[in-house]
Write a structure and sequence with these properties.
The protein has ten helices and 16 strands. With about 325 residues, it is an alpha/beta fold. Helix 7 links the parallel strand 11 and strand 12. About 45% of the residues are buried. Bound molecules: threonylcarbamoyladenylate and magnesium ion. The site of magnesium ion has 3 residues, from loops.
Length: about 325
């Protein structure tokens, strides 16, 4: 049921069951981080492989030391700059953190989400929440309560309704393995913003070492409809002429009678607005029984780079 009843949400969580929560990035499938029973239910409901670790959500950075230890200076600076907000830090875990959360690693991913309803909830309960995005493994992340409902129907007793997510793509994940700051997953905080706080940082690239952060798994965030990411949309339309085509455009609409549906993410060419609308547009296009979704490549800077990352993973066969 879609609801805003925080007391009911609290009692469901206290009995080791799951709810959906809004965050500023995407909706999460949340359970008590101190309950292995709840954590197991998350993996089962999402059909998520056990090697893919979860993010712990805290009410405040004051609680960070209860989850993580040996926190590097860069991590503290980033937390101060971006929390509450769409940045996840991968840190050495405290020994009591369940290895179900961390997939057996000695690091734990943690963030303070920036959504009033979820912060209120976190303040009502006396445990943090583990929450992956509230979608079946591999599919498009949800940015509204209705998206979550479409996936899980009444398997969730409560989907907390916090409206449309303000940021629209997942948190940026930063880790510090071997003393080197690295971005494990591009997301709602741009590389440029992170560089302003801690100086240079690399994006972790390794097809062979995807388990490092399985959000980097190639196919992910994917519509059921075949999707391509192209520089030249007009040219691509001509390659699929007898197909039912849908378009995902950055700012300019294309006039072509062959097109069945078209989503323009930001007429003003604003990358924040584009990120905010990205998944909702993909959800809509994916429900139209199209043969193909042609997505236009975004400018490769700021959030454009994070959007391209998601679109690229959506196109992997
Ligand atoms: O914005 C977000 O981060 C959303 C909202 C709900 O907070 N959550 C989210 O969770 O995107 P999920 O489970 O879909 O993605 C979590 C990512 C995965 O790619 C996982 O591999 C990575 O975090 N991760 C978790 N723990 C890790 C660790 N110890 N080391 C490296 N990566 C880790
Ligand atoms: Mg996810």
């Amino acid at each position: 049921m879609i609801s805003t009843d925080l007391n009911k949400a609290k009692s469901i969580l206290q009995s080791d069951n799951l709810i959906a929560i809004p965050t500023e990035t995407v909706y999460g499938l949340a359970g008590n981080a101190f309950s292995d029973e709840a954590i197991n239910k998350i993996f089962e409901l999402k059909k998520r492989p056990r090697f893919n670790p979860l993010i712990v959500h805290l009410k405040s950075s004051d609680d960070l030391h209860t989850i993580a230890q040996k926190i590097p200076e860069e991590a503290i600076k980033l937390a101060e700059a971006f929390w509450p907000g769409p940045l996840t830090l991968v840190l050495k875990k405290q020994s009591h953190i369940s290895s179900l959360i961390t997939a057996g690693k000695d690091t734990v991913a943690v963030r303070v989400p920036n959504h009033p309803l979820t912060l209120q909830l976190l303040n009502l309960i006396d445990f943090p929440l583990v929450a992956p995005s509230a979608n079946p493994f591999g599919s498009i992340s949800p940015t509204s309560a209705a998206h979550v409902f479409n996936y899980f129907k009444n398997e969730l007793e409560i989907i907390l309704d916090g409206g449309a997510c303000e940021r629209g793509i997942e948190s940026t994940i930063v880790g510090f393995e071997d003393g080197v700051s690295q971005i494990y997953r591009l997301g709602s905080v741009s590389i440029e913003e992170i560089k302003q706080v801690i100086g240079n940082i690399e994006v972790f690239h390794s097809e062979s070492n995807e388990i490092m952060s399985p959000g980097m798994l190639s196919r992910h965030y994917a519509p059921k409809t075949k999707t391509v990411l192209v520089d030249d949309v007009e040219k691509s339309i001509n390659q699929f002429l007898n197909k039912r085509i849908g378009l995902l455009m950055f700012k300019n609409k294309i006039t072509n009678t062959k097109i069945i549906a078209q989503e323009v993410l930001s007429e003003l060419g604003d990358l924040n607005e584009s990120a905010q609308k990205l998944y909702a547009s993909l959800h809509r296009l994916d429900h139209l029984n199209l043969d193909i979704i042609i997505a236009e490549k975004f400018p490769d800077f700021g959030l454009g780079r994070s959007i391209n990352d998601r679109l690229l993973r959506a196109t992997k066969p």
